Every structure is written in structure tokens, then in C-alpha cells.
Amino acid sequence: MSSNNIDTTESSASPTAASSTAEDAGAETETETVTDAEATTDDDRRELAAQVELLADENRRLREEYVRARQSRYRATAIGLAAIGIVAALGSIAFPDAREVLVALGATGLFGALLTYYLTPSRFVAADVGERVYTASTANVAAIGDELGLRDERVYLPGETAPARLYVPQHADYSLPDERAGPIVVDDDARGLLLEATGAELFRPFERALTGDLAADPTPLAAQLTDGLVEQFELARSAESDVDAGDGRATIAVSDSAFGPIDRFDHPIPSFLAVGFAAGLERPIRLEIAPGDDRADWLITCRWGLETDPEDEPAAAGDAESTADAETTAQ
For 180-192, what is each residue's pLDDT tens digit? Predict the structure, then answer.
């Protein structure tokens, strides 16, 4: 009797033990699977980190090679100038009749070689890096302008402390603010933003590099500005101007901008041109930008002769007072 009970108990306990053993085996299998997955993930992360580090090293190496290539180009030019100078100097000894010309040529070549060698830039910043920096800044300012409800209108005002500043009005009917106002102008008739123009920082070295004075006539001024835009700063591949002084307009056709689309807020290319016209003509410049055609990528139009010119306001106020006095006398 007791033997039967014992057998029954053992047989009833056997399925429970088997089930427990199966559960333990399943748990161990799941643990091993999770461990293997974690190990695989760690391996993937280490592999990705190694690839990122390898790419970073490769980018650093390419930048260094680019800098060395640019420097070697300058140094090759310096060696060529020095060779010309030495040959001319030796030629002045062999050819006494042309000594003065050869001595001058030799001195010029050697002097140019020294300048080229010692003034070789040691750092170059890629254009796409500058464009990314500009894009972030202009996006922030444009967002502020949209939040304030400002108009999509750009006016560059000549000044004394800066070549020109950028004024963005809030209303369609506005008066030009004083140069010392800003950056937020709260006057009812001139409400808006008055900001430092991007082109002002480019205009200063441009003006210093001029061989003569800054032109005061629109046509030669446009030629100076387009030349500086392409040759000095290399901000565009080409820039051609069309000036109508009688209409108070200068249109510049620009191709291959180094800083991407130029219809963004205070882009360096149109900003430099507008600042240059404002400083040279000493008049406010209204800026307009439109897509180009088959001949150019963009058309930049600078207009002067605004009706709200600050220089005309005192005269207009005097005329208004005179008219009021005349009306009072007539009455």
C-alpha cells in the first residue's frame, strides 16, 4: 500500500521536474542568445568607431595634402620669379647696352619671388565650410525677421562708422533710420532692423587693395566691384555689369557662386555689391535679386535715388514749413 503511494508520488513529480528542467534550459538558451546579440552589437560599434576614426584620419590627410599642394604652387611661382631675376641680373653683365632694363627686371623678379615665398598662405578654408557657417547665421537672422513680421526688402544705408549697414523695414511706407539707430529700430516711421552688413567686412579690404580711389560714378564703380568680386575674393566665377545711371540702376549678372544660392538673407555677393554702391555713391541702395537666364545664374539689381533719402528729408521738411507759413499768411 505504501509502495503504491510512493510510486504514485514519484510519477506525479516527474512531469514537474521535467518541466522545470525544460524551463531552465530555455532560460539558459535565451540568456546565451542575448549575450551573443550584445557581443555582436559591441563588435559592430567597435567596427563603426574604427571606420569613423579611419575616415577622420583620411580627411585630415587629404586636407594636409591640399594645403601642401597650394603652398607648392606658390613656391614654384616664387622659384620661377627668382630664376627670371637671376637670369636678368646676369644678362645685365653680358649686355651692357641693356643693363638698366635688365637690372630693373632682375630686381623686380627677385623682389616678387621674396614676396610670393614669404607671403604664401599657411591655411586654406574650403568654400563649403564657409557656406555652412553662413547658412546657419543667415537662417537665424531670417527666422527673427519672419517672427517680427518684417518685409522682404533690403536697403543698404551708407554711414560714417561703417561703409554701409543693412536696413530691413517692417512697413511698406517707411523712412530711413539714422545710422546710429539699431539693431532694433522702434521709431514708428522706420520700424525694423538695422544690422551690420556682411559685405561691409569684405568692402574694407577691397578698398585698401584698390590702386586708386573708389569711383564715385556708377559705371566705373560697377567695374571695380565686379573685378573685386571675381578676382580678389573669388566669390563667383564671372560677374558682368549693366549700368543705367539715368534710371538709377545697376544690374550685375553673376555665375557660379562660391556660397550657393545668393537670394538668401544678406548673402556675401549681393551684400558686397550693395555696400560698395552705397559707399561709392553715398546714397541708400535698394537691393533686388532674381534668378538669371542662360547667360547667368543670378541677376542682382542695385537701385539708388530712393524717395526717402535721409539727405532729402531736411529739405523736404523746410519746404513743408515754408508751404505752411505761406498758407497761414494767405489766410
Answer: 787 888 888 899 9
